[in-house]
Design goal:
The chain has helices at residues 46-56, 65-71, 85-93, 112-123, 131-144; strands spanning 12-14, 17-18, 25-28, 33-36, 41-42, 79-80. The protein has 2 domains: 12-80, no CATH class; 85-144, no CATH class. A hairpin with a 4-residue loop joins strand 3 and strand 4 (33-36). It has a two-stranded antiparallel ribbon with strand order 1-2. A two-stranded antiparallel sheet has the order 3-4. The chain starts with 11 loop residues before the first strand and ends with a helix. Helix 4 packs antiparallel against helix 5 (131-144). It has 5 helices and 6 strands. With 145 residues, it is α+β, with helices and mostly antiparallel strands. Keywords: Amino-acid biosynthesis, Asparagine biosynthesis, ATP-binding, Cytoplasm, Ligase, Nucleotide-binding.
């Protein structure tokens, strides 16, 4: 289930259908599962927030500062969306963990040498002919050295 205090997934849009999202999901053959590469949608308003927190049993969040501001009408209604660069890179390079394309420490991440090997091995079957892997490896060297 989606977070109750982010996108509006409970407003009825037509009979039998609810949610004001337009997320893009693709099949990820490495993970053998659906893979979200974007997050797009209309964010919750006060009514959707209360309704969704009740559905998930998280009404205690109504006491939090951001939630209180939304309930008082101090937060404007918003819509947002974008393609996740890291997730798209994961998909194109056929990697199975976001830590393989982002700078930072993660459990089991290993050394730069292991990172480079994973990227190059994964990119071997990518139609881009390894360009993306060389670019990503160079980018990793600049940001994480």
């Amino acid at each position: 289930m989606r977070a109750p205090d982010y996108d509006d997934w409970s407003t009825e849009i037509s009979e039998g259908f609810a949610g004001l999202n337009g997320d893009i999901l693709v099949w990820n053959p490495v993970l053998e599962d659906a893979f979200e590469i974007s997050s797009m949608g209309i964010r919750v308003d006060a009514e959707a927030l209360k309704r969704q927190l009740a559905v998930t049993g998280d009404e205690d969040r109504l006491q939090l500062e951001w939630h209180q501001a939304l309930l008082r009408g101090e937060m404007p209604q918003t819509i947002g969306g974008g393609i996740g660069q890291s997730r798209l890179t994961m998909l194109l390079l056929q990697l199975d963990h976001i830590g393989q394309v982002q700078c930072g420490r993660m459990a089991g991440a290993g050394s730069r040498k292991r990172f480079r090997a994973a990227v190059m091995n994964s990119a071997a079957s990518v139609a881009a002919g390894g360009y993306a892997a060389r670019y990503q490896s160079a980018r990793y060297d600049r940001r994480c050295a």
